Fold this sequence. Notes:
Chain A is mainly alpha-helical.
Amino acid sequence: xxxxxxxxxxxxxxxxxxxxxxxxxxxxxxxxxxxxxxxxxxxxxxxxxxxxxxxxxxxxxxxxxxxxxxxxxxxxxxxxxxxxxxxxxxxxxxxxxxxxxxxxxxxxxxxxxxxxxxxxxxxxxxxxxxxxxxxxxxxxxxxxxxxxxxxxxxxxxxxxxxxxxxxxxxxxxxxxxxxxxxxxxxxxxxxxxxxxxxxxxxxxx
Amino acid sequence: xxxxxxxxxxxxxxxxxxxxxxxxxxxxxxxxxxxxxxxxxxxxxxxxxxxxxxxxxxxxxxxxxxxxxxxxxxxxxxxxxxxxxxxxxxxxxxxxxxxxxxxxxxxxxxxxxxxxxxxxxxxxxxxxxxxxxxxxxxxxxxxxxxxxxxxxxxxxxxxxxxxxxxxxxxxxxxxxxxxxxxxxxxxxxxxxxxxxxxxxxxxxxxxxxxxxxxxxxxxxxxxxxxxxxxxxxxxxxxxxx
Lengths: 205, 241
C-alpha cells in the first residue's frame, strides 16, 4: 500500500511538476476553466489534509475515505462558487465541514432509528465509526468539544491563518481566538491531570 | 504541560505524512473527469447584493402600488428622509450577509443573529424617535392586518431572492434561512412604511417591527423543514438499498 500511497508532503512537488509557479488559488481558477491537470493537482494536494480532518473526527479510515469522495463530488458540483482571488483553503474546508455535519446528522438519525428497532449493540460499533483506529491527532484532541477541535485542526495541523479559519467556520476572528484559548486551557488541564495520575501510579508501584 | 509543548505536539502531528491510497485519489479524479467543463464563477458580492436590493425595492413598490402609498404621503419630510435611507441601508447589509451565507468560505462580518438583532433594534430606535402619536386605538385588529401584510409581502421577496442566489451553495441552512427571512422581512417593512398611514407609536413599534423577527423565524422553520425532509429522503433511500 505504501508504494501506491500519496502523502500530504509530496503534493507541492506534484503541483510544481505539473504546473510550475502555481499556487492553490491559481489551480482552482484553472479547475474552474475545465483544466483536468489542475483538478488532479488539487485533488492530490488537498485530499490528505481533508482526509486527516475527517479521520480526526470519525477515526475510521473507511468513513474518512467515503467523506473525502463525497466532499470532492460536492466541490465539483459547486466549484463555480469559488471566486478567483479569494483564499481557497477556507472554501474547501467550509464544504468539508458541511459534508461532515451532514454525515454526523445522518449517522445520528440512523442510530436513533436503529435504536428504536432494538439493535443498539450492532449499531454502536458500525454507525459511530469508532473502530479503534484513532490516530494521534484524534487522541490528542479527544477531550475537546467539536467546535474547538476543528479550529485547532485547521489552525495547527492544516496551517491556516486565523482569518482563514474564521472564514471556513463562518465565524469571526475573535471567536476563533476564543475557541483556541479555551481549547489550549482544556488540553493543559487534561494533560496535567493525566501527568499527575501517571505520577501517582508510578509512585505507588 | 505548557502551551509550547502542546504546540510542539501538534506540530509533530502536522509534520507526520498522512498517507492516502493512489487508487482513492484516482477514483476521485475519474469521478469528476466526465463532467469537467468550464464554469462561470459567481459575480462579486456587491453585484449580487444589488440584485437583492432591487428585489426588495421591487416587492415594496409593487406591494404599496397595489395597496396604496398612504403612509409615505402622510409622512413628514424628516420621517421620509430618515426611514427610507435607513431601511435601504439595512437591506444592503442584510443583502451582503445573505450573499456571504451562500458562498462557502466567505468572510463573515455580522452573524445572522446579529443581523436580526441589529435590524430590529435600529427599526425600533428610528420609529421611537420619529413618531409621537401615543394613542392605541384598534391596537390588535389594525396591528394584525399590518403584520399579515408585511409577512405576506416577505414571501415573494424571499422567493425572488433565492432566485437571485440560486447558484450559491448553502453551507449552513439554518443560518441562511434566518438571513433570508430577515432580508425578506425588511421588504415587508418597506411595504408597510409606504402603505400604512397609522402613525401610532405602539402600532409601528410592535407590529411593523415584528415583521422582521417573525419573518426570520419563518425562514429558520422553512430551512429546518427542508433539511429534515432532505435528511428523511436520504434516510429512506438508504433504507431501501
